[in-house]
Amino acid sequence: MNESMAGMKRTHYAAELSMSNANEKVTVMGWVQKRRNLGSVIFLDIRDRSGLIQVFLDEPVLGPEDFAKGERLRAEFVVAVEGVVQRRGDGGVNPNLKTGEIEIRATALRILNHAETPPFHIEDDVNAKEDLRLKYRYLDLRRPVLQKNLILRHKVTTAARQFLDKEGFLEIETPMLTRSTPEGARDYLVPSRINQGMFYALPQSPQIFKQLLMLSGYDRYMQIAKCFRDEDLRADRQPEFTQIDMELSFVNQEDILDLNERLLQYIFKQVMDMELSLPFKRITYKEAMERFGSDKPDMRFGLELKDLAELAAGCGFSVFADTIKSGGSVRAINAKGMAELPRKQIDALTELCKYHGAKGMAYLAVKDGEVKSSFAKFLTETEIQKLLQLTEAEDGDLILAVADKEEVVFKVLGELRLEIARRLNYLDKNVYDFVWVTEFPLLEWSEEQGRYMAKHHPFTTPMEEDIPLLDTDPGKVRAVAYDICLNGNELGGGSLRIYHRHLQEKMFEALGFSKEEAYERFGFLLDAFQYGVPPHGGLAFGLDRMVMLMAKADSIREVIAFPKVKDASDPMSDAPNIVEEKQLRELGIQVIKPEGEK
RNA sequence: GGCCCAAUGGUUCAGUCGGUUAGAACGCCGCCCUGUCACGGCGGAGGUCAGGGGUUCGAGUCCCCUUUGGGUCGCCA
Fold first, then answer.
1. In what order do the strands lie in the sheet with A398-404?
2. What whole-number distance in Å separates Cα of residue A226 and Cα of residue A240?
3. Dihedral sign, CA of A371, A374, A377, A382?
4. d(CA A287, CA A291)
């Protein structure tokens, strides 16, 4: 039988209590984490979102009726306990518990609700498989670590709002039902009942709206914005996710980077009591690719790429020499101290390179003055010395080299660099190493579409000195676009926007849109651009990734209350699902079933 | 869409070379126990070995397909 809490009022969260509450009469309410029944005394661990407190039940104090309830308690029953805080008895303190010094000696106990035995233990070191945990997400969310993560997330958004408010930002909501602009990721579509056959799209980001707000004179906008992209999931990618989004008028790139560094500094100070020193490192896209083989470099360790062109051109190893001759690139990583990596492991690294598109991988190990290598036999002694010099190799090092088109070399060595860092245990989650990557290319050639696509988005402004290249060599144009990276993750990105109509039209032209197509897709924006657009720019952070890294979690699912699984479904609610035919009729939608189905 | 990994009581796992009745820990149920906190003691229940097909005298074990979940490539302006 469940009892009412009438007449009882909670006075404290469980883990708020301490010796300073000794002899106080308190009431806590929560879930039974554990019952330890010793016969004529019973210990309970009561859990609420603050943590655990031990409750001591003995019949002389509690009375026979409530004590009998204590004997019926099971895990996850909901209880109210009234009692007196006291130092623990002969058993002493439990150092593993924040409240390990004290306990509540119960004077009254009520069972507010019963509970079935949960399908897995609710504790942090739970080993239950993720699909089971996601099916019972509401139970998984009881685990302290997930509660901690969601509280952390709350603190991050609160800190962001506080800081941006002080900086003069206005929080303004933008619509969820928007117009589809098929440039970029796939849209989630929402059918319109009133306008049959027509569809809204859920926003991939509030991009256009925030730019219009600048045009409207709001000067500084921010939003904790939900965004939607109908693409495949990853550990760090969900179909719906949250951005800390902002846009500012009358600013240059430096203003935006400076503001956002200070925002991150404030968040990390408020939430983690960690001091970030400013300014952050800044490197250009070109430098990031050449040194780290990635546009989101992990700066926690070295292992930088080394250009071997000087050696490779005309050397005795034809794979190298021919690659250079045909305009390719030969680069290497020095895996410090890994000279004695067994052949089998080297083969595994070669496979990794092939997986990422390389034709092969050349290696050279130096150990006790001896050289062990897949290709040294093709090189002269001078060439080997040159190689060691270019890669700054010392005794005990292992050189791994790849020759291919430059983009392949960067990609492969970028991945190889991360793999070596993993093997050398360089990836310390307690280190937070930020870097700005600037001067991204404006455009990217799409083989599939047979045209240039905006790398960031079509409203990004080109760098002033590169504008003439738009007509001659669009692929070379750099944008005033920047990403903020943390430990090899893209944490956020933004750009200065185009604010002159003729430049925007030129941009659409470079993207291969005719004037008519551009108007068809973005006409309202081009119209708006006739009415006085201020210079403006902005940035958006991936909130989920930021919180994931702060929580040291391995997946953003650990920092989202109700995440979706790999096929974009929710195993708990079973969304998406079929709907009633009546609903479809109202929308004028016919479901086309695969052949063979009735 | 491609590739890789996983699935055995409620949970996490073991299960040898294909061979008798599929084991353990935790959890669950019952009894006992006054200082436990991984409480302890005694007893007990609980299995469509994910599903389907195949090979075999014999399949948890080998093969194929399917399902579910995870990772990843493509994709993600």
1. A305-307, A329-335, A398-404, A362-367, A370-373
2. 7
3. negative
4. 6
- Between CA A67 and CA A88 the distance in angstroms is 19
- What is the edge-to-edge ordering of all strands in the sheet holding A281-284? A170-171, A220-228, A240-249, A536-542, A489-496, A481-486, A434-438, A281-284
Q: Which nucleotides of B are covered by protein (CB under 7 A)?
A: 1, 10-13, 26-29, 32-40, 68-77
CA of A134 to C1' of B60 (A): 27
Q: Is the CB of A351 under 7 A from strand B?
A: no
pLDDT digits (tens, 9 = 90+) for A30-77: 999 999 999 999 999 999 999 999 999 999 999 999 999 999 999 999
C-alpha span between A570 and A129 (Å, rounded): 15
Q: Looking up tokens 């940035």, which residue turns up? A: A539
Query: Does the predicted model carry a pTM greater than 0.90?
Result: yes
Q: Any atom of strand B under 7 A from CB of A517?
A: no
pLDDT digits (tens, 9 = 90+) for A510-569: 888 888 888 888 888 888 989 999 999 999 999 999 999 999 988 899 999 999 988 888
- What is the value of ipTM here, to two decimals? 0.89
DSSP A298-321: -TTS---EEE-HHHHTT-S-HHHH
Sole residue written with tokens 């319109």: A192
